[in-house]
Specification:
single chain; 584 residues; alpha/beta; Rossmann fold; 3 domains; six-stranded parallel β-sheet; 35% helix; 17% strand
């Protein structure tokens, strides 16, 4: 029997946050001002951000790494609209972020109060659960519901809209009790039917050219060992989409690297030629399959594993559907395969062909990554970053050109959540990385090495949230080492590359170019560490110096604005969109 409590709305909310094991609250001040000190007094880490988008991205980064819910907050009106716009990122990443917003007091609605607007519709497209709480007695319970839904099934963001008068309103309510099963992702691990496990294993074993394509669900389920063991047991090459990068060691002989629009053309080619494709916890959307060409529709048999049943069959005709948690499903497949097959499947000829193709790719990009030219080539920047980071570090990539360079050219050598990227919101990787750094600081202990965070971002992206360098400095003793590396080519390269050849204008390029700014000096003006690099031989040492500085840091690398990443299927006809650029 639950106890009946007499309290205020804000105290009930904070109690619910504690019951749900919320440890971090990212916010921009406004609206329910008395709520924030109440949260801090309860022992929850309160992180004051410089804008609402950054608050959402920090919560996203924290929740991805910590694998648990966090909270972001914005006040009513325009602030709520801004916060909602960035919930696209945790939705795409399946990150359990709970968004809270304030709103006009219920007794003052529809009187043209300052910034009055109905906020709930903003959150419909990007949230698993979205509620406008009109009764303060239900506020704490709705928060518990939102937190549980955020981590359940396929994780994702939720939203609870409050009203400002609820903060200090006296209420009578039932006690809210949190269930520890919902404190982390995943709370439950459902399994597919045994007959479908058997069908999938037989199909993979009998295949001549099978491929596993792994997505972010491998990270969410921590199914690293199972992916590796199944691949080795059945001699199946493994590709990942860019959200799944890092779930399989990229120096492994069976690794194909990343496929898709931002992936390697060699990996896309191998997937196109497969006779069985095993999608492992990926939605197999257009970006992840190179605009549905890798594989092409009807070109192979498909096994699709996902915890969300509505995903399966959405794009590809599926021969064997598997609805379940990644880790336990792969464990079931391993158990069945060991008992069924007396010998290890030999695919030497197939694997030799793949090894040759991957080797040709590696040889090609190695030459690009060793280029000594000035301005610095972005390919060389990726090589020097690889030298400067450790296996335990987390690399956080921005979108556009940057994600295209990082997915192709940075090699993740140890399976784990050591690569994060944003999925379309230019510039959001900086606060995403900062949020991850708070989680990484908490993860230290029990003999685990301190993780460091390196954010790779372009000059087009860094200006979106550069003010949160001040946030990083303000909380410097509470997060892991944090370094931003700017690929500074003074242009928006993704768009510029579509209208200009190297040195030979084919269209209007001036509209994509910026002034040549030194973001290292900007960092220094915030009190952070900054260093400008103009020669490739100086990059790795500059990154080491940034980490050693003990401050949030910016390494500003002056790169070649005419070097364009080969993004998308247009690589196959590069003379159209990327003149003089080799396909890779």
């Amino acid at each position: 029997m639950k106890r009946r409590l007499s309290t205020t709305g804000q105290r009930a909310l904070v109690a619910a946050m504690k019951e749900c094991n919320i440890e971090y609250f990212f916010y921009v001040e406004g609206g329910m001002a008395t709520l924030f000190p109440e949260i801090s007094r309860a022992g929850i880490n309160t992180i004051l951000c410089r804008n609402e988008k950054a608050a959402c991205s920090m919560a996203d980064g924290y929740s991805r790494v910590a694998r648990k819910p966090s909270v972001c907050y914005a006040q009513h009106g325009a602030a709520a609209a801004i916060l909602s716009s960035l919930l696209y990122e945790p939705m795409f990443a399946h990150s359990p972020v709970v968004a809270l917003t304030g709103s006009t007091p219920t007794m003052e609605k529809d009187q043209w109060r300052y910034q009055e607007v109905y906020e709930k519709p903003y959150f419909e497209p990007t949230c698993k659960f979205n509620v406008d709480v009109t009764d303060a007695e239900r506020l704490a319970d709705y928060f518990r519901i939102a937190s549980q839904i955020a981590v359940s099934g396929c994780p994702g963001p939720t939203h609870v809209g409050m009203h400002n008068d609820m903060a200090t309103k006296q209420i009578e309510m039932d006690e809210v009790v949190g269930d520890p099963v919902f404190f982390t992702v995943p709370p439950f691990r459902p399994r597919p039917e045994p007959n479908r496990i058997a069908e999938a294993c037989k199909l993979l074993f009998e295949a001549e050219r099978p491929v596993m394509v792994c997505g972010s669900g491998v990270h969410i389920s921590s199914a690293y060992d199972e992916v590796k063991e199944l691949a080795e047991l059945m001699s199946i090459p493994v590709a990942t989409n860019y959200s799944g990068k890092g779930c399989f060691p990229e120096n492994h002989p069976l690794s194909l690297g990343v496929i898709g629009v931002y992936g390697r053309e060699s990996a896309n080619r191998i997937v196109r030629e497969a006779d069985v494709v095993f999608f492992v916890s990926t939605r197999a959307g257009s970006h992840m399959t190179d605009e549905f060409t890798a594989p092409g529709p009807g070109g192979c048999k498909v096994i699709h594993l996902d915890i969300d049943p509505v995903v399966i069959g959405r794009i590809y005709k599926v021969d064997v559907p598997l609805v379940g948690d990644t880790k336990v499903t792969l464990q079931e497949m391993l158990s069945y395969s060991r008992s069924l097959f007396a010998r290890k499947k030999s695919r030497n000829e197939y694997l030799n062909q793949i090894s040759k193709l991957v080797g040709e790719y590696e040889k090609f990009v190695t030459k690009l990554m060793s280029d000594d030219k000035v301005p610095i080539k972005p390919q060389r920047l990726m090589e020097e970053v690889s030298k400067a980071v450790c296996e335990t570090d987390i690399i956080v990539s921005d979108t556009g050109q940057m994600v295209s360079w990082t997915t192709r050219l940075l090699k993740v050598k140890r399976a784990g959540l050591n690569y994060l990227c944003c999925s379309g919101s230019l510039g959001s990787s900086l606060p995403l990385a900062l949020g991850a750094s708070f989680a990484a600081a908490n993860n230290k202990g029990g003999g685990r090495e301190q993780q460091r965070i390196l954010n790779l971002i372009g000059d087009g992206g860094v200006v979106y949230n550069i003010a949160d360098l001040e946030t990083a400095l303000r909380y410097n003793d509470r997060h892991a080492p944090f370094v931003v590396v700017v690929n500074n080519n003074s242009t928006l390269g993704s768009s510029r590359g579509k209208v200009a050849d190297k040195g030979n204008p084919r269209g209007w390029v001036e509209g994509f170019d910026f002034l040549d700014l030194d973001y290292a000096r900007v960092a220094e003006s915030f009190g952070c560490f900054g260093i400008r690099v103009e020669r490739p031989s100086e990059i790795a040492e500059a990154i080491r110096a940034a980490f050693d500085s003990g401050k949030p840091s910016v390494v500003d690398v002056a790169t070649d604005k005419t070097e364009y990443a080969p993004i998308g299927p247009s690589r196959m006809s590069s003379e159209v969109a990327f003149p003089s650029l080799l396909s890779y």
